[in-house]
Each structure stands twice: as C-alpha cells, then as structure tokens.
C-alpha cells in the first residue's frame, strides 16, 4: 500500500519538482500540498499523512514551528536550500534531510530509510494515525527555544505542570511545551500514564520503587531519579490499578 504523503513548501516550483521526482516511486502517494506552515497544520490534521516533505524556511512560521504545533508528528523528511539547518534537523531526529535541488539518488535513499523505519514499527504497532489515545510508539515533536526533538511517548517518564506549560522529562532533557496537564491527560493512554497529583503525570513503566508516605499517600521513585508524591485521592485509584 502506498505511503500517504504531503509536500509543504512555499515555492510552487519546488513542490512541482518534488512531485515529478516522486512519480518514479510507486510506494509514495502525494495526497496534498501546502504553501505555508498554517495551511500545512490544517491539512495534516485533516488528511493524516504518514509522511511529510517539509521545507524549513517559509514566510511566517518555519517548518520547526509547524511541527511544534502538531499533537503527533508524522514521519518527516526535510527539504531545504539552507544547509546550516542540517545539524538542527538531525538533532530533532528527522528521517532524512534533502538539500535543494533534490537529487533523485538522495531521494531514493531517504525513501528506503523510511520503508525500513515503517517496517520496524509495523512489527510493534497498530496503525500510524489511530484517533484513540496516543500509543508509546507515537512520536511527539518538542521545541524549546532553539532546540528541537522527536520523542517517542514511551521514552517520556514524567510530565510536570508549570503554569500553562508542561515540562517534559526524557533522557537528561526537560523542555517546556505549551500544553496543559489536563489536555495531555485526555490524549495519553491511561494504561501507561497516570495522573499522580495536580502537578504530575507519570509513566508507569518508569517506576522503580513505591513506598508509603504521609497521610495515606504514596511516594513513587522514577528511574530518572525523580520522587513523585501520589495524592491521597489518586493513591486509592493507583492501588486498584496496580493491585496493591
């Protein structure tokens, strides 16, 4: 089955050129295109592509800004004329990075890389754009100042509320995203993420130790070193879930 793809680039000629090159790849179906980030966001939400070919420098918002506004990031192959962005693109762990004008050989390599990635995921995943809760394999894009990352949800051990933002704990990083804890809780799989208290959502798979705490509460140690208190009300629910 062809991979549903979308091209987001402010230059019409560049979009047409890429579409022409993609005609020789039967496994890629270009279902839509967009000329700027806002139009791109709208069409990604509407058409759910599995892959986007994304320009970085566009008038208004950049390609990185676009990714930061998506709830769940599709696979991304960056296309740009500016090679100073190459390092940043790989820092965010994009599938590949194509320098304009795009060479057919480089495009073929990028598509091969994509197929390998999708094959790996199919072995452990139930569909790329299911509308249910986000799964541990789903990747989210996190942008904090100049730094950007693609992170699989399974790698995130903790979300912490900071005003209207949430601090995301993964590896040694703790960037902020403009999302409330309540909004996150609605989309996260409750079998994996648990609302420990007003300020924290923990990833149950990252729990190292659980111990009794004051006033009938629990204290949870995460593998990253954080100690999180489970509120008294949530402790009842937590014990039921964990059959304690």
Give a written overview of the molecule.
It contains seven helices and 15 strands. It has 244 residues and is of the alpha/beta class. The strands form four sheets. Strands 2-1-3-4-5 form a five-stranded parallel sheet, with helices on both faces. Strands 10-9-8-12-11 form a five-stranded antiparallel sheet, with no helix packed on it. It has a three-stranded antiparallel sheet with strand order 13-14-15. Helix 2 crosses helix 3. The protein starts with a strand and ends with a helix. About 2% of the residues have low confidence.
Main beta-sheet strand count, sense and barrel state? 5 strands, parallel
Task: Assign the structural class, choosing from mainly alpha, mainly beta, alpha/beta, alpha+beta, or little secondary structure.
Answer: alpha/beta
Tell me the series of helices and strands, N- to C-terminal: EHEHEHEHEHEEEEEHEEEEEH
Number of strands: 15
Low-confidence stretches: 125-130
CA distance, first residue to last residue:
46 Å
Strand order of the largest sheet: 2-1-3-4-5
Query: What is the number of domains?
Result: 2
Proper CATH architecture of the largest domain:
3-Layer(aba) Sandwich
**CATH class wording of the largest domain:** Alpha Beta
CATH superfamily of the largest domain: Response regulator
Q: What share of the residues lie within helices?
A: 25-40%
Keywords, please?
244 residues, alpha/beta, single chain, 5-stranded antiparallel β-sheet, 30% helix, OB fold (Dihydrolipoamide Acetyltransferase, E2P), Rossmann fold
């Amino acid at each position: 089955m062809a991979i549903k793809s979308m091209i987001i680039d402010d230059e019409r000629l560049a979009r047409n050129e890429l579409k022409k090159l993609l005609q020789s790849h039967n496994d890629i179906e270009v279902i839509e295109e967009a000329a700027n980030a806002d139009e791109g966001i709208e069409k990604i939400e509407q058409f759910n592509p599995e892959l986007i070919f994304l320009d970085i420098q566009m008038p208004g918002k950049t390609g990185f800004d676009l990714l930061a506004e998506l709830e769940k990031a599709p696979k991304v192959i960056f296309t740009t004329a500016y090679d100073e962005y190459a390092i940043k693109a790989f820092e965010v762990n994009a599938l590949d990075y194509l320098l304009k004008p795009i060479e057919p050989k480089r495009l073929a390599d990028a598509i091969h890389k994509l197929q390998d990635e999708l094959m790996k995921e199919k072995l452990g995943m139930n569909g790329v754009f299911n509308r249910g809760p986000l799964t541990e394999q789903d990747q989210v894009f996190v942008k904090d100042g100049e730094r950007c990352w693609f992170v699989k949800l399974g790698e995130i051990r903790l979300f912490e509320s900071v005003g209207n933002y949430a601090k995301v704990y993964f590896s040694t990083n703790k960037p902020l995203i403009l999302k409330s804890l309540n909004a996150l809780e609605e989309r996260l799989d409750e079998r994996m993420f648990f609302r420990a208290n007003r300020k924290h959502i923990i990833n149950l798979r990252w729990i190292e130790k659980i111990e009794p705490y004051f006033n009938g509460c629990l204290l949870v140690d995460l593998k990253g070193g954080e100690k999180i208190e489970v509120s008294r009300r949530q402790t009842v629910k937590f014990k039921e879930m964990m059959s304690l």
